[in-house]
């Protein structure tokens, strides 16, 4: 560890929120230095990344759904874990190079957040990808722990802190105390499933086919979990599934809300199951401490209200919920010795 500390003076160590939709990188003293989509553009039939390995992130996302037959825009993360090992390695390599650049003389230490429900094989895939991508040492931290740290919850104290981190591929629900997780649940229902629900609704109701990017835009602009004081409308374009021609319609926030009921119900069920498995004293603490929401899904209008109604607890949205996990990985890296004491293995991984 002393050698690592000395080497750290000459490297740019970083915390990475390796998400299904977006990857964020946080560096000590600089905050969030990178926030780009987890997308890579490759030549079809190969895993060769376009533009000399630079068709990653924002550049590649612009190609989603618009590529010619010879190019594929790929999201190598699915449900919070690696679905394409080689493409994930190329993506991580690009992001690490972009952040580290020439500022460091040695390879960086990297802390990566992963879903609490992933398998040992999936953990090893993340670590191998990061090491091959240029990391000197890789530490894994569970996403709800990172989210709790980033949200500023008192998770090291002998009181219950509860976090609900709704990302793109997974929703992580955890109750933490004394720098460890007491109860947690990871469900593979999150923002992507909300987008898919909107796509299916438009296809079923209007025979209109839209892409993931447009569905996400609908969710952000008029989506909600509970009735709004003033309901919203939005004009949306897509392809008619019957005629095959482009068509435009107007949809309302009420029908979007109806389409989101199923994924939202699955998230609420995960929250209530976690509460049911909590120790009585920890459950009692939550009467005062409440629940914190993090992740992009926390920004869905009135989601805090509907979770509060279902649990009877006070629900608050963390400051800057989109960056909570990334900021948490950076704090974890800064206090590695403290956090390693709570882990099961010598290398700091859970």
Strand content: 15-25%
The largest beta-sheet arranges its strands as 3-2-1-8-9
Count of spatially separate domains:
4
Shape: flat
Helix content: 25-40%
List keywords for this structure.
350 residues, alpha/beta, Nucleotidyltransferase, domain 5, five-stranded mixed β-sheet, 4 domains, disordered C terminus, 14 helices
Give a verbal description of the structure:
Helices cover 39% and strands 25% of the residues. It has 350 residues and is an alpha/beta fold. Strand 11 (171-177) and strand 12 (180-187) form a beta hairpin. It has 4 domains: 1-36 and 82-151 and 322-350, 2-Layer Sandwich (Nucleotidyltransferase, domain 5), CATH 3.30.420; 39-74, no CATH class; 159-189 and 262-321, ATPase, nucleotide binding domain (Nucleotidyltransferase, domain 5); 191-261, ATPase, substrate binding domain, subdomain 4 (Actin, Chain A, domain 4), CATH 3.90.640.10. The longest helix is centred in the N-terminal third of the chain and has 16 residues, at 85-100. The radius of gyration is 21 Å and the shape is flat.
């Amino acid at each position: 560890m002393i050698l690592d500390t000395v080497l750290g003076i000459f490297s740019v160590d970083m915390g990475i929120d390796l998400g299904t939709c977006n990857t964020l990188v946080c560096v000590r003293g600089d905050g969030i230095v990178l926030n780009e989509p987890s997308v890579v553009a490759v030549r079809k039939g190969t895993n060769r990344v376009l533009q000399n390995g630079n068709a990653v992130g924002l550049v590649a996302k612009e190609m989603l759904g618009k590529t010619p037959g010879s190019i594929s825009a790929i999201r190598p993360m699915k449900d919070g874990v690696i679905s394409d090992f080689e493409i994930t390695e190329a993506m991580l390599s690009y992001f690490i190079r972009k952040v580290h650049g020439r500022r460091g003389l040695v390879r960086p230490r990297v802390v990566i957040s992963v879903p609490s429900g992933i398998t040992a094989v999936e953990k090893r895939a993340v670590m191998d990808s990061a090491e091959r991508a240029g990391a000197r040492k890789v530490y894994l931290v569970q996403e709800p722990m990172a989210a709790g740290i980033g949200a500023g919850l008192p998770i090291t104290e002998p009181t219950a802190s509860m976090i609900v981190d709704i990302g793109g591929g997974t929703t992580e629900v955890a109750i933490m105390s004394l720098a460890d997780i007491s109860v947690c649940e990871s469900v593979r229902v999150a923002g992507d499933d909300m987008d898919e629900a909107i796509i299916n609704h438009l296809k079923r109701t209007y025979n209109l086919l839209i892409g993931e990017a447009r569905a996400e835009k609908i969710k952000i602009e008029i989506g909600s979990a509970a009735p709004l004081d003033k309901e919203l409308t939005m004009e949306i374009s897509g392809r008619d599934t019957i005629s095959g021609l482009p068509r435009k319609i107007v949809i309302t926030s009420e029908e979007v809300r109806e389409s989101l009921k199923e994924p939202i119900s699955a998230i609420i069920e995960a929250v209530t199951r976690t509460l049911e498995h909590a120790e009585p004293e920890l459950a009692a603490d939550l009467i005062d401490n409440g629940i914190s929401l993090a992740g992009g899904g926390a920004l869905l209008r009135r989601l805090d209200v509907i979770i509060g109604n279902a649990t009877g607890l006070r629900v608050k949205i963390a400051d800057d919920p989109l960056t909570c996990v990334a900021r948490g990985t950076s704090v974890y890296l800064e206090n590695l010795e403290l956090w390693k004491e709570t882990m099961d293995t010598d290398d700091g991984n859970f």
